[in-house]
Design brief:
By secondary structure, the protein is α/β, with parallel strands linked by helices. It is 33% helix and 19% strand. The chain has one domain. The radius of gyration is 14 Å and the shape is globular.
Length: 152
């Protein structure tokens, strides 16, 4: 079973209430080959919500307490991101995920690139909190771009 970011399947759950629909991901869900997950909603956020970025490191640093996830207004929302990551891990184990496709650049889901913490739309190499946890537990996590490259 494949696990996919809900926003990639068309769910309007991104921080700004939009989606990032990829038709192939939507098809996989409709064919019951993939299940949707939004780590941020699982962590307790609602949609829309304030943008947040990792400050002081990357996803793995958040998990070890060396970095934080901070909203643009300055609120520390690290605990919600960590909670969502662990709930996503539970789901991945439950469905015995063979591959996990998550939204690039997200502080939860980024698998190769995340925002740099400056709230200026600048990006840097790194992974989100959920991706870091899933990889630590042995799951294969790829971005929507990697999925597109594999199926084209």
């Amino acid at each position: 079973m494949i696990v996919v970011s809900s926003c990639l399947a068309g769910s309007e759950c991104r921080y700004n209430g939009t989606h990032s629909l990829i038709k192939k991901v939507e098809e996989l869900v409709k064919q019951n080959k993939a299940v949707m997950v939004c780590p941020e909603l699982l962590g307790g956020f609602s949609t829309p919500r304030e943008p947040a970025e990792i400050i002081g490191g990357r996803g793995e640093d958040v998990l070890t307490g060396k970095a934080k996830v901070i909203e643009k207004s300055g609120n520390d929302v690290t605990s919600l991101y960590v909670a969502g990551a662990y709930k996503t891990l539970e789901l991945a184990k439950q469905v015995q995920a063979t591959c996990i496709v998550l939204k690039e650049y997200s502080p939860s889901c980024g698998s190769g690139m995340i925002h740099d913490g400056s709230f200026s739309n600048a990006k840097r190499v790194g992974e989100g909190v959920t991706t870091a946890l899933l990889r630590k537990e042995g799951f294969q996590v790829i971005s929507e771009r990697e999925l597109a490259a594999r199926i084209s």
